[in-house]
Design brief:
Shape of chain C: globular
Helix content of chain B: over 70%
Strand content of chain B: under 5%
Structural class of chain B: mainly alpha
Number of helices of chain B: 10
Order of helices and strands of chain B: HHHHHHHHHH
Largest sheet of chain C: none
Strand content of chain C: under 5%
Chains: A alpha+beta, B mainly alpha, C mainly alpha
Radius of gyration of chain C: 24 Å
Number of strands of chain C: 0
Oligomer: heterotrimer
Order of helices and strands of chain C: HHHHHHHHHHHHH
Radius of gyration of chain B: 23 Å
Largest sheet of chain B: none
Chain lengths: ~550, ~300, ~350
């Protein structure tokens, strides 16, 4: 027994010795090497804020999903010019619109290759069949893939695109025709948004044969600059360079999304160089980024709105007076200061000032607690009334900290005798429950995907958007729907303005939601990263970004 | 004028006095005791002492640095957090919550542990090796791990975490009591009581328990520092107290969000936990060595 | 001896049975459908439901279900995670080695620092060195591990920019998982520039290891110190002194060995404390270990993951302590159990 112990002791001594030797070698190896990261591997790491629900932006309007898929894996027929906002060529090289505005003909790009991965090898290049397949997936209920991954296409549904398109036809292998039921001035813009991506028909057929249809959204194939390599939930997404990419952008060998939900941790990783770029820096930390000599802060006015929506299908929130009273009790200026750190402008209506539908003379609802109290009592809301405010668990550009905002509002509403219960769930559960209408009111918002104001008016408050789940107020007004439908029949902005101003007035009177702020869009990245710019229309674009 | 002693009077300190005399010699431990008393004062009177309501949000006073920093204000001595709440008040209430709950938990665990341990020690039946071994194995598992597992089952929340920690602290008291009772039962004074016909519960309460005081205090201080660490760790992991409750661990995890721009929002609550742990550990150490010295002499 | 080993195995089997039975009962105690808690498939369709009912023998008697549950446990069929849909056995196999790795390095580090210092303090009992080390050790074991980790991050990562603050390795490197232990995997893999990758992994390891080693180092120091003091006060050392041996001989030949031996198992027991602290620190450093994973599962109310994670961690810890206990009995049959020393 003793010898056993002796052995143990000896091995322990040896271990000690060895450790010292290792330590010594390491110190020789150089503190410098140890303390300064010197990654030789070629790759860009982007710190993103959450898990994508799938890799198909057709299925989800959440920015996180769009960021991880839309501009990385896929291409669209058309794109937006980042500077002017004009529609430019994507997979379609040119297009024609008939005089009555109903018939769109697209000439498609040739020699565009799909990704080759270990789960799929394409045998043919991109052609018109892929476009028809991709559009039919959300357009036609009887398409084979329509019901895969839930069968809900919130973006297309909220804009009524499926109903708008009469048919999508093949003219020849590289020529496509789309016929609309009625003219719509925003149609081309809609085709250029993050959601109108082109999937591979050949891949879909291969999956169908193997009876693995749901893989199409989890192991995606597209024509975009990067191909999907692997994804670990709560950890990372790895993309590899698509060598046969048709565009001429310079790329790095790999692109990695480091999933980091906390914005302070993202910033910390950016400071230590563990990320090269980060999405959604916290508004409280912008100053830190500005002052750091290694970091660059990019800023552009955002096409978004953060708001407080009442569930108008639930009494007493079905009464405009109650909604007005509650909105009078909130000091929006203080909220903007505390939550956005003054990096946002106060919202008077749902469209931001950068949009041409913005109405400068629109009046803001000022903070007036005594009037609020009076109006509440007149409408039979006694002190001690309890309502819920649902607050998003994640940060979005339009609301960097909904829970904190809800806590502040709790204080304001307490002052007029309304008790507030703050409700929050994990993000996907949260949206699921919101869709069911369990909330009294919710703090959420909307980021537009193209410059067209219809992209605000329709998804946020039209009757059709209740079903697709983007109308958080459950507010349905025929008058309003008629106004925004009318606006789309005209192509001239001034004609359309007339209807949008009327819609603005209606919203201001009815107050289904209280607009709070239009926040600027920010991106922070390290100085050695080149080619990274804010995409004002939707998700991040990392094609062509390299490290120096 | 000192009176000269005519007769050499022998001073026989009671065991308790003896321990106290030994403890007094250890200046660091006495410092720790003063610190514990100071914290106790805060815990008892923080409602009066705290300048603000810990939940009061001042939207116009967000992230004000503490007074000793160049642009700090004197109104909020420790500065304010990301919601404009006064940090001094929050730390004081946090001490009350963390320390107060910990004391409560230790008392609960102690009373359960001592009664179960006494039953186990006095009776012969429960002596089976399985019970002994199970208890020993459980003792070897850190309380925090047990608490996390219990919370995993019960769900998160302050009350659940309190249950979890109380349960996790109990085994060591059982163990201690059982061993002590076993040991004492062999001694003459217990045998004498037994021969007098005293029933077991009377033997325990009248004869053994009064002698256990010191051991329980020492064990209690150890358990207290564990309880503070556990409850704040659970708060920190968002498994225990939830925001906006002013619990030190939960405050710390709230502070992470602004750690880079407002380092004081993690330095102060963390420092408060550290100070509590430190002073209790000092007292515990002092008590233990005092006890050891007394028994040696 | 045989009796001891036999009793040990009895005990291990009993404990494991109790743990597995407890985790089986949890399926019913957790909110939600027991079948979902068992399989990890939320809202199964009727077809799946039937298959699941069959695989888990849901229509059999309770104890028979438990029997099949045990078979599933042993065959590694632990169900799926509700939130990620991944196999739980796979997830545990991925995360547990990361935690064990971290704790092991921290244990080694705390021995390397704690034992010599404790030895020194013991020799210099009641002298300045002793007091200084003792005071430093009180600081060390009073500092909450999560606070220390945050201070280290603030200082060494954010201010000085020396060390990274998250993960085990830079995401740029793709190290295939073979054993789950990072350094072994790097050595076994066929990636180029291995030395660079190893250095990167080492840089990631430093701060988390330091923050959990702090507590254990001080505990090791105090245990070692007390043991040395007690050994030096014992009669055979007095006898050696009386016989005129030099103090060097006494310390090296008699004191060191006799002081170390009884405390080795106690020191090994520190591993469980380390594992617990590692679970907290993992969350701060985004270390992909079992603690981080289990705590995420608790947030997401992922009951199958909670059940399996709890079972894995408690089995590991209980088995570990029992094995140490057995070793102690085999080494020194006189001792009845590992004594909880006053540190």
């Amino acid at each position: 027994m003793l010898s056993y112990c002796g052995f143990k002791l000896n091995s322990k001594k040896r271990l000690l010795q060895n450790s010292f030797i290792i330590l010594f070698c390491l110190s020789l190896f150089g503190c410098d090497a140890l303390l300064n990261a010197n990654n030789q591997s070629d790759g860009v790491i982007y710190c993103s804020e959450g898990n994508p629900t799938s890799f198909n932006p057709q299925l989800d309007t959440s920015g996180t999903t769009v960021d991880a898929s839309s501009h990385q894996i896929y291409d669209r027929l058309l794109d937006f010019d980042g500077q002017t906002g004009n529609v430019i060529a994507g997979l379609a090289t040119s297009w024609l619109i008939s005089d009555n505005g109903l018939r769109y003909t697209f000439q498609l790009r040739k020699n565009v290759e799909f990704h080759q991965t270990d789960y799929f090898t394409p045998t043919r290049a991109f052609n018109v069949d892929d476009v028809i397949f991709s559009f039919d997936r959300w357009r036609l209920k009887d398409s084979v893939y329509h019901n895969v991954s839930g069968g809900a296409y919130p973006y297309a549904d909220s804009l009524g695109l499926g109903k708008l398109i009469e048919r999508v036809e093949r003219i020849n292998t590289y020529r496509l025709e789309i016929v609309l039921k009625q003219p719509q001035s925003s149609f081309l813009s809609n085709l250029a948004t993050d959601f109108a991506v082109i999937l591979s028909k050949e891949y879909a057929e291969q999956l169908e044969q193997n009876d693995q249809k749901d893989l199409i959204d989890r192991q995606p194939i597209g024509t975009g600059p990067f191909k999907f390599a692997n994804f670990r939930q709560d950890s990372f997404i790895r993309f590899k360079k698509h060598n046969q990419y048709w565009g001429d952008s310079i790329q790095t060998e790999q692109l990695i999304f480091d999933i980091t939900p906390s914005s302070s941790l993202r910033l910390a990783k950016l400071i230590t160089g563990e990320c090269d770029a980060m999405g959604l820096p916290a508004h409280s930390e912008l100053e830190v980024v500005r002052q750091s000599k290694d970091l660059i802060l990019d800023e552009k006015p955002g096409l978004n709105v953060g708001f407080w929506a009442f569930n108008t299908s639930k009494p007493p929130f079905d009464r405009p007076e109650v909604r007005r009273a509650l909105s009078l009790a909130i000091d929006k200026n203080a909220l903007i200061e505390a939550i956005y750190f003054d990096s946002a402008i106060l919202a008077k209506n749902i469209v931001p000032p950068t949009s041409w539908a913005f109405q400068t003379e629109q009046k803001n609802i000022s903070y007036n607690p005594s009037a609020a109290q009076k109006l509440l009592r007149e409408n039979g809301i006694e002190p001690g009334f309890t309502m819920s405010i649902w607050a998003m668990p994640v940060e979005r550009p339009y609301n960097p900290n909904a829970i904190k905002m809800a806590e502040l509002m709790q204080g304001y509403l307490q002052a007029v005798g309304v008790n507030v219960e703050i409700v929050s769930y994990e993000w996907s559960t949260f949206r699921e429950k919101l869709k069911q209408g369990n909330h009294d009111s919710v703090l959420i918002g909307w980021s537009a995907d193209n410059g067209d104001p219809d992209n605000f008016y329709r998804p946020l408050l039209s009757c059709g958007a209740i079903k697709s789940g983007t109308n958080r107020a459950f507010w349905c007004s025929e008058e309003y729907d008629a106004l925004i439908d009318q606006a789309l029949r005209f192509t001239n902005n001034e004609d359309r303005q007339y209807f949008y101003f009327k819609a603005n007035a209606l919203i201001a009177e009815q107050l289904p939601l209280v607009p709070i702020a239009h926040a600027s869009k920010y991106q922070a990245f390290r100085k050695n990263l080149v080619g990274f710019e804010i995409n004002p229309y939707g998700g991040v674009k990392l094609a062509g970004v390299t490290k120096e | 004028m000192s009176r000269s002693k005519l007769y050499q009077e022998e001073f026989h300190p009671s065991p308790l006095q003896h321990t106290w005399m030994e403890f007094k010699e250890n200046h660091i431990a006495v410092g720790g005791l003063c610190c514990v008393l100071f914290i106790l004062v805060i815990v008892l009177f923080c409602g009066v002492l705290a300048p603000f309501d810990p939940l009061l949000q001042q939207a116009d006073a967000i992230l004000i640095p503490p007074a000793w920093q160049p642009n700090g204000g004197i109104v909020n001595v420790f500065g304010t957090d990301a919601l404009g709440r006064d940090l001094l008040s929050r730390v004081m209430h946090g001490c009350q919550m963390t320390f107060g709950i910990s004391i409560l938990l230790v008392l609960i665990a102690m009373s359960i542990g001592v009664s179960v341990g006494a039953i186990a020690g006095m009776s012969r039946g429960v002596r089976s090796s399985v019970v002994n071994h199970t208890l020993d194995s459980i003792m070897a598992i850190p309380t925090l791990l047990i608490a996390i597992i219990i919370i995993a089952i019960l769900g998160t929340g302050l009350v659940n975490s309190m249950w979890a920690i109380a349960l996790a602290l109990t085994p060591q008291f059982i163990h201690q009591t059982r061993d002590y009772v076993r040991q004492e039962c062999k001694k003459e004074y217990v045998q004498a009581a037994k021969l007098d016909g005293a029933p077991p519960n009377q033997i325990f309460i009248r004869s053994i328990l009064p002698n256990m005081g010191e051991i329980l205090v020492v064990q209690g201080t150890m358990a207290l520092s564990i309880a503070i660490l556990d409850i704040s760790a659970l708060g920190f992991l968002n498994l225990g107290a939830q925001a906006p409750t002013p619990e030190l661990g939960a405050m710390l995890s709230e502070g992470i969000e602004v750690a880079y721009i407002a380092p004081w929002s993690i330095a102060l609550p963390g420092g408060a936990i550290f100070l509590m742990m430190l002073s209790i550990n000092l007292v515990g150490d002092g008590l233990r060595s005092a006890l050891r010295n007394r028994l040696l002499h | 001896m045989l009796k001891v080993i036999l009793r040990f195995f009895n005990l291990v089997v009993l404990t494991l049975l109790a743990l597995s039975f407890f985790s089986f009962i949890l399926i019913y105690l957790f909110p939600g459908d027991p079948l979902t808690n068992l399989s990890g498939i939320a809202n199964p369709n009727p077809q799946q439901l039937e298959i699941l009912n069959q695989t888990y023998h849901r229509d059999s008697a309770f104890l028979i279900q438990y029997w099949y549950y045990l078979i599933d446990l042993f065959s590694g069929n632990w169900g799926l995670s509700v939130s990620s849909g991944l196999s739980l056995a796979d997830e545990v196999a991925r995360t547990l080695p990361a935690s064990i790795e971290l704790s092991t390095y921290a244990l080694i580090l705390s021995f390397i620092i704690g034992l010599p210092l404790g030895f020194l303090a013991g020799l210099r009992h009641h002298k300045t060195t002793d007091y200084a080390l003792l005071s430093a050790s009180v600081l060390g074991y009073s500092i909450p591990v999560f606070w220390l980790a945050m201070l280290l991050i603030l200082g060494f990562s954010l201010q000085l920019g020396w060390f990274p603050l998250s993960g085990r390795i830079s995401l740029l490197y793709e190290v295939p998982r073979i054993s789950g232990f990072m350094f072994l995997d790097i050595i076994w893999s066929d990636i180029d520039n291995k030395s660079e990758v190893i250095l990167d992994a080492f840089r990631h390891l430093i701060l988390p290891t330091l923050s959990i080693a702090a507590f254990t180092t001080t505990v090791t120091l105090r245990i070692m110190r007390r043991s040395i003091i007690e050994t030096l006060n014992s009669e055979y050392i007095q006898a050696a002194v009386a016989r005129g041996l030099t103090s060097r001989q006494i310390i090296m030949k008699h004191a060191l060995k006799n002081a170390l031996m009884p405390i080795l198992p106690i020191l090994a027991m520190q591993f469980t404390t380390l594992l617990t602290n590692a679970m907290i620190v993992e969350v701060i450093f985004s270390w992909p270990g079992i603690g981080n994973w289990l705590i995420q599962a608790i947030y997401q109310r992922d009951y199958p993951a909670i059940r399996v994670g709890m079972l894995a961690v408690s089995t590991l810890v209980v088995m570990f302590t029992m094995t140490i206990d057995l070793l102690l009995r085999l080494i020194d049959p006189k001792k009845s159990k590992v004594e909880r020393v006053a540190i």
